[in-house]
Amino acid sequence: MKLVILTGMSGAGKSTALKMMEDIGFYCVDNLPIPLLETFVELSETSKEELQKFAIGIDIRSGESFEELHSVLDRLDQKGKAPEILFLEAEDATLVKRYKETRRNHPLSGGERVETGIAEERKRLEFLKQRADYIIDTSRLLTRELRAELDKIFVKQQDYKNLFITVLSFGFKYGIPADSDLVFDVRFLPNPYYVEGLREKNGNDKEIQDYVLQFGEAHEFLDKLTDMIDFLIPNYIIEGKNQLVISIGCTGGKHRSVTLANELYKRLSGNKEYGLKIEHRDIEKDALRK
C-alpha cells in the first residue's frame, strides 16, 4: 500500500495536484479531519486489492485539530506506517497574485491583508515542510509541468531531489528578473542586431544560433557556466533549495541570451536530480513595441 499526504501552502495548487493524483491511480480524499487519519490508515491496509494507492489532502483548513498532526504522524512513524509527504510551495508574491486574481480570502487572514495570512500559515506548516519527502515549488510551473513532476515521482518513481531549475533569457533594457538566483550578462558577445538580415530573427532561429556560436568566447562561457552550475546544484540540494532561476541577459533579450539559454538548457537536460524548464521572457518585446 502507498499512502501520500498532499499538503502545503494555500494557493500553491493542492486541489489541482490532488486531481492529478487521482488521474494517475490514487484514491483521493481532500481535507480529511486530522483525528481520522490513523483510522484511515488502518482501514486502507485492509482495502481491496485494486485500491492500493491513497492520497490525502490535509492543510490549514483543519483548524485547531491541525495541531494534532504532529503527534499523529509521530505515532504512525513509530508503527512503521508513516505516509509519504508531498509539500507544495510557492513564493509569497506568487501566492498574493493568485489570491488577488481569484478574489478569495486567505483562510488565516481574517480581516487582515493576504500577506498576514501567508506569513502565519508558513509558521504553522514549517514542521510539515521539514518532514516532507517531496517539495515542489509551483511559483513558475505551468499545469502540465506540475503534472510531469508528479508523474516523475509517483509513476516513473525516479529519485527526486526537490530542486526545479528555470533557465531564463531576458533583456537588460526591460529589467533584471526579480526572482533570479544567478544572473549572467552575455553582452560581451557581438550583437546580431547590427548584422544585415539578422535583426528580425531571434535566438530560436538557426541563423542567429550559427552567428552567436561561431565565436569561441560563447563556447568558453558555456563551458565555464556549466561547470559552475554542476558544482552548485548538489550543494543547493543539500541546503534544501527547491527553486533555482538562472537568468541570462543581453540587451533586448532576443538574440544572444536566447541562444545561450537554449544551449545551457541542452547541457543540463537529462539529469534526473532536478526538474528543468526554459523561458524566454523578452523574446517578443521588440516586435510588440514597434
Automatic annotation (TrEMBL):
Top-level division of the source organism's lineage: Bacteria
Residues engaged in binding GTP: D59, I60, R61, S62
Entry annotated with the keyword Electron transport: no
Keyword Nucleotide-binding: yes
Record keywords: ATP-binding, GTP-binding, Nucleotide-binding
Residue ranges of every copy of the RapZ C-terminal domain listed in the record: 165-284
Residues reported in the UniProt entry to bind ATP: G8, M9, S10, G11, A12, G13, K14, S15
Gene Ontology MF annotations: ATP binding; GTP binding
Domain RapZ-like N-terminal: residue ranges: 1-156
Name of this protein: RNase adapter RapZ
Organism: Roseburia zhanii
Lineage, opening ranks: Bacteria, Bacillati, Bacillota, Clostridia, Lachnospirales
